[in-house]
């Protein structure tokens, strides 16, 4: 049984999808052992506590030096023996210290079809504002491994979502969450824990 640590910063709807999937037996060979928030008061912490999952706060703003933040995160991950780290609405940047220790063992959910609308500064609602601004007819979500390039790691799963006339960024964000994020993140986590994701270079082959 692999141990999963989930890093959060906000409302935690993706964390909730993982918690519900585990409860429904949809995460094979994996269990969430810890939720770590980058800021106090993140509602994701309440979701974890309600599910009886251990929590910790490693507040990004408490660290002047990004390396010290990375080291503090790494020590929390080591303490719980995490085999897999899942970034679920996590808004801080991970540095070399954590990424090198967990090469191809950190998974992130991004609310677009990478390589569109991703990279530095593209997160949360901004991603949907960019998609609407560009006038794309289809967007979606991507689950990928994390490396030192923001949203640059090997893609694991993607799911497309149609944009509708009159969509606002908020309406679109909700549809992408409901129809894509909350489905492919638990699925990718289960595939990882089942050993069904093979990484070659910067791409993956995922067993059906
Ligand atoms: C979502 O748009 C997700 O795609 C992005 O962070 C936002 C909030 O996620 N990664 P959550 O509700 O905190 O899981």
Describe the structure concisely.
The protein is of the alpha/beta class and 208 residues long. The protein has helices at 13-23, 43-50, 66-79, 96-101, 125-134, 169-193; strands at residues 2-8, 30-37, 54-57, 84-87, 106-110, 138-145, 155-162, 197-200, 203-206. The mean pLDDT is 97.
Output the structural class.
alpha/beta
Helix and strand pattern: EHEHEHEHEHEEHEE
User: Strand order, biggest sheet?
Assistant: 3-2-1-4-5-6-7
**Binned strand content:** 25-35%
List how many beta strands DSSP finds.
9
Rg, rounded, reads 16 Å
The level of helicity is 25-40%
Biggest sheet, in brief? 7 strands, mixed
Question: How would you sum up the global shape?
Answer: globular
Low-confidence stretches: none
Q: Name every ligand kind in the structure.
A: 5-O-phosphono-beta-D-ribofuranosylamine
Mean pLDDT: 97
Give the N-terminus to C-terminus distance in angstroms.
Answer: 20 Å
Tally the helices: 6
Characterization of this structure:
There is one protein chain. With 208 residues, the chain is α/β, with parallel strands linked by helices. It has six helices and nine strands. The chain has helices at 13-23, 43-50, 66-79, 96-101, 125-134, 169-193; strands spanning 2-8, 30-37, 54-57, 84-87, 106-110, 138-145, 155-162, 197-200, 203-206. Strands 3-2-1-4-5-6-7 form a seven-stranded mixed beta sheet, with helices on both faces. The longest helix has 25 residues, at 169-193. Bound molecules: 5-O-phosphono-beta-D-ribofuranosylamine. 5-O-phosphono-beta-D-ribofuranosylamine (GRF) binds next to helix 1 and helix 6.
């Amino acid at each position: 049984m692999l141990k999963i640590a989930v890093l959060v910063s906000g409302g935690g709807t993706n964390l909730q999808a993982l918690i519900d999937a585990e409860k429904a037996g949809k995460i094979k060979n994996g269990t969430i052992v810890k939720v770590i928030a980058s800021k106090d008061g993140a509602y994701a912490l309440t979701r974890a506590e309600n599910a009886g999952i251990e929590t910790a706060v490693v507040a990004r703003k408490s660290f002047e030096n990004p390396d010290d933040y990375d080291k503090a995160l790494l020590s929390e991950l080591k303490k719980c023996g995490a085999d897999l780290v899942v970034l679920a609405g996590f808004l801080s940047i991970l540095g070399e210290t954590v990424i090198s220790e967990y090469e191809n063992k950190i998974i992130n959910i991004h609310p677009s079809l990478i390589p569109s609308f991703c990279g530095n500064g593209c997160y949360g609602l901004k991603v949907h504002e960019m998609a609407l601004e560009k006038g794309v007819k289809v967007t979606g979500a991507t689950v990928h491994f994390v490396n030192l390039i923001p949203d640059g790691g090997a893609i694991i799963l993607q799911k497309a979502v149609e944009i509708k006339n009159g969509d606002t960024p908020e309406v679109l964000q909700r549809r992408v969450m409901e129809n894509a994020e909350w489905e492919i993140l638990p699925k990718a986590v289960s595939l990882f824990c089942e050993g069904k994701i093979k990484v070659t270079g910067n791409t993956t082959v995922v067993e059906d």
